[in-house]
């Protein structure tokens, strides 16, 4: 918006997004409004604690531009309660013949500002509420990784919080396209231990953001006597191994010293340095082989339209495994890349579409291996594409491992008794996202996506990248970034 934009023009722009107050109070005595409905009515959810002070600043700006009743601080009110209340009011107004309520419900869009955990929370709530016409969601990047916003074209850097920046973003939301993306169910089951606990542990005390593990009730069909069963969901990725260990160290440090983590650049630098102290850059020296994926668990996959489990051969050197739904991981990298036509034919590999009912399963040996993602056509070790994945942890393989869902890590204890721990991931359904027209995510139903993926990698090997000085200049993603002040010669 130009600085010279008149107040009348500004009001005309904002009318396209504002929702009248009576929509939020179905009991108010309001006749059917003769004014035209907003072209792009939005509900705005902001995690005021995300991005340091930025979340709070953004909340103030949105409330100054829109109706305060359509802008919510997630620290004060949970989105499921808000959406239930708003949709109940809309249904009551519709039953009274209010045309504006009908039109608003048909065109409603959601904006969520926060980290990937916050965005996943909103996606999970909208999915769980099972609306007949679920509103699509646009994500404002306020976290450290910001994989969800980046995958759909909203960027990965913290946005401006001034009026012009917010109005510009609102206009982008109005012009955005809708995309369906797969969402995934994850189940963890383990025999109830004789002593101690094997419960999943979330270090940030944000189980709603994880939309992840909660113990199923005794009446749940997934419950099994003598076992603890947990279930949850994710939209971007599930990972296990050393990448999750680094993430866990970062989140634990941030929980202990939140005052040190109010700047995005500082957060990313700290994340990178922890990658070194945790041994991610010299894993062969400091990471016991007993914790490599193949030694820790047996992995099985099920192809689409199949009912048969197949054992997946994991190279013995793989220390991290990622089950990826979106083409954005570790701050915007694409571990799967685009297989060339030869690989697509010989290994039945496809490009990474976000709505094809398949997860891309990728392995990494260490952070050096991950640095290959920063090169053109770079990718990790492509292990498989699967409609279902099952991890069966070996008896006594380790006391614990590290896991991560959509950026939220935890340290998972493993029992030592005679039953394996099982983690199983299966396709659950789809949710609606808002995306810019040039976004990174591609749909299998979009002809332009198919042509976009014609130029795949032509590198037939997946060797370690050279430990050369040229890698320092990329400095992109937290998990694989070489921090300033660390000499490569001391790590190789």
From TrEMBL:
Any GO BP annotation: phospholipase C-activating G protein-coupled receptor signaling pathway
Region annotation (Disordered) ranges: 445-476
Reactions catalysed: a 1,2-diacyl-sn-glycerol + ATP = a 1,2-diacyl-sn-glycero-3-phosphate + ADP + H(+)
Keyword Transferase: yes
GO molecular function, one term: ATP binding
Domain DAGKc residues, every copy: 37-190
EC number per UniProt: 2.7.1.107
SUPFAM superfamilies per the UniProt record, alphabetical: NAD kinase/diacylglycerol kinase-like (SSF111331)
Gene3D superfamilies: 2.60.200.40, Probable inorganic polyphosphate/atp-NAD kinase, domain 1
PANTHER family, alphabetized: DIACYLGLYCEROL KINASE (PTHR11255), DIACYLGLYCEROL KINASE 5 (PTHR11255:SF98)
UniProt similarity note: Belongs to the eukaryotic diacylglycerol kinase family.
The protein's name: Diacylglycerol kinase
